[in-house]
Amino acid sequence: MRRSITPNSGTPMSGRAAKRSADYERANLSVLDMRMTIAATRLSLRPRSLSFAPINVMVRACNDYLETSSTDPGVYVAELDKLRKDLGDPVDHLRRLNRLKLTNFAPGMGALTNSVGPRKITSHTP
């Protein structure tokens, strides 16, 4: 199960306790999944796309989180909050570049609304 990167005011843990926690594991798996999705998106871009710069910033932010949290697991909750903030500007930049009209959910809110039940899928058959 993935973990959203919502702000968390949880009790700080020692590095050893954090490394053994299920939340630490879920958080790292979620960031790895994000990084893979972002990297796959980068591979699908056209050459010289203006989206390369914000996409690269997003991959770097994920890498920074993973490196810092593996070096000092006790700070992973604070680093998740930093990651959430670091991803905000590039996402907004991508939205503007691509003229996307997307609702900007607070982290975790999209997951909550989607987990309530199955999405209603309608098909249009001629």
Account of the protein in words:
This protein is elongated. It has a domain at 20-99. α2 (22-43) packs antiparallel against α3 and α3 runs antiparallel to α4 (76-97). By secondary structure, the chain is mostly helical. Helix content is 61%, strand content 0%. It contains 5 helices and no strands.
Helicity, in percent?
55-70%
Distance between the termini: 39 Å
Q: Tell me, rounded to a whole number, the average pLDDT.
A: 77
Number of strands: 0
Order of helices and strands: HHHHH
CA-based gyration radius: 17 Å
Largest sheet: none
Short account of what is shown:
The protein has 126 residues and is mainly α. The protein has helices at 15-20, 22-43, 52-71, 76-97, 109-115.
Question: What are the main properties of this structure?
Answer:
single chain, 126 residues, mainly alpha, 5 helices, disordered C terminus
Sequence-ordered SSE layout with sheet pairings:
Layout: H1 15-20, H2 22-43, H3 52-71, H4 76-97, H5 109-115
Helix pairs in contact: 2-3, 3-4
